[in-house]
Design a protein that fits this description.
About 55% of the residues lie in helices and about 0% in strands. By secondary structure, the chain is mainly alpha-helical. The longest helix is centred in the C-terminal third of the chain and has 27 residues. The two termini are about 15 Å apart.
């Protein structure tokens, strides 16, 4: 079950606030997909961005979580992540994969990301030396992931309204 869409406490410590904001935006990703049929989840509504579908964005978010928390911070292998392949936007190419499966994969990846976060301090830095971003601190990665997740939640908000008129602010 997704995390409730609530903001972290105003006086919580830094780690609790950062994870709270990230979890809230992760939950909004779920909320924007509630009630979508697989057909609508895979339907493109933006002519210049045909892969930016609800399903494509959920898949993208799964792989972004994997990239930053596992590959950049822990230097785990990147070979399973389509973002590191030769095909542009391969992580968003999910035709025929049910939205429910994509959301489950996203949830599992977020759980792994949270395990990674629990094992590191905010001041720790990534272990990946192949990419410049691999030297980012955990704090930087969390802030970036809040930005990335919120930005794509906004895309999902617009896509959802174009698909079926559903809208709402968390």
């Amino acid at each position: 079950m997704p995390t409730p869409r609530t903001r972290p406490d105003y006086t919580a410590d830094e780690r609790t606030q950062l994870l709270g904001w990230l979890d809230m935006h992760r939950s909004i990703i779920h909320w924007k997909c509630e009630g979508l049929s697989d057909e609508d989840a895979h339907r493109s509504v933006l002519p210049s961005s045909p892969l930016m579908t609800a399903a494509g964005l959920v898949a993208h978010m799964r792989w972004v979580e994997h990239c930053w928390f596992e590959v950049m911070l822990l230097d785990r292998p990147s070979d399973i992540n389509p973002q590191f392949g030769d095909v542009e936007d391969a992580d968003m190419q999910v035709e025929g994969i049910p939205l429910s499966r994509l959301l489950e994969e996203y949830d599992r990846q977020c759980a792994v990301s949270n395990e990674v976060l629990a094992s590191l301090s905010l001041d720790d830095t990534g272990r990946n030396t192949e990419f410049k971003a691999g030297a980012a601190s955990v704090r930087w990665v969390m802030l970036h992931m809040i930005e990335e997740t919120a930005r794509h939640a906004g895309h999902l908000d617009a896509i959802r309204e174009l698909l079926d008129g559903e809208k709402g602010y968390f």
